[in-house]
TrEMBL record:
The chain crosses the membrane at residues 7-27, 33-53. Keywords: Membrane, Transmembrane, Transmembrane helix. This is CcmD family protein. It comes from Ruegeria alba.
Length: 85
């Protein structure tokens, strides 16, 4: 499953850069073509971020990447109550 998510990540970011470049630099596009290129670039951007975050979560869960240093809810609440704010 991680390989599929990695492939989706690469394809999504490629679509973002390709269609974003087209939307920004093409001279002879109609308004409709410009809107479609912009929407495809935005879709690639969103899918790329989602796929990247899923890959990060899978890497942390498998032990490949070290876990983030986030506090659990009880420790966070205790620290906030001691902070006086």
């Amino acid at each position: 499953m991680n390989k599929l998510i990695a492939i989706v990540n690469v394809v999504a970011w490629s679509g973002f850069w390709a269609f974003g470049y087209i939307a920004l630099t093409a001279q002879d596009l109609t308004d409709r073509q410009l809107i479609i290129a912009s929407l495809l670039a935005f879709a690639g951007f969103i899918m790329g971020i989602v796929a990247y975050l899923r890959l990060v979560r899978a890497a942390e869960a498998s032990g490949y990447a070290k876990k983030t240093n986030q506090l659990d809810a009880a420790a966070r609440n205790r620290a906030q109550s001691e902070g006086g704010m």
